[in-house]
Write a structure and sequence with these properties.
The protein contains 3 helices and no strands. The protein is mainly α. Helix 1 runs antiparallel to helix 2 and helix 1 packs parallel to helix 3.
Length: 80
């Protein structure tokens, strides 16, 4: 077995980030908004922010996950 730069818990943290971002995107595009195009653009930005995170940088993953989790909580509060 070769050496991997990822530890198992690093992969789990990155997967949690991806899951949280998918939930944020889902809420953004499913909400009733007068300007659906703006929601789609915002959802694309969320996905881009995740893609920009260096998955090998655990601090960056943890920070992005914290931000995404916060964003998800805010959206859940706003969504009836």
């Amino acid at each position: 077995m070769g050496d991997s730069a990822w530890r198992a818990d690093d992969a789990v943290a990155y997967d949690e980030l991806r899951t949280a971002s998918a939930a944020v995107v889902s809420l953004l595009v499913s909400r009733q908004r007068p300007d659906r195009a703006a929601a789609i653009v915002e959802a694309a930005r969320v996905r881009q922010r995740v893609l920009e995170v260096d998955g090998f940088d655990r601090q960056a993953v943890d920070l992005a996950l914290a931000r995404m989790t916060h964003e998800l909580a805010v959206l859940r509060e706003e969504t009836p």
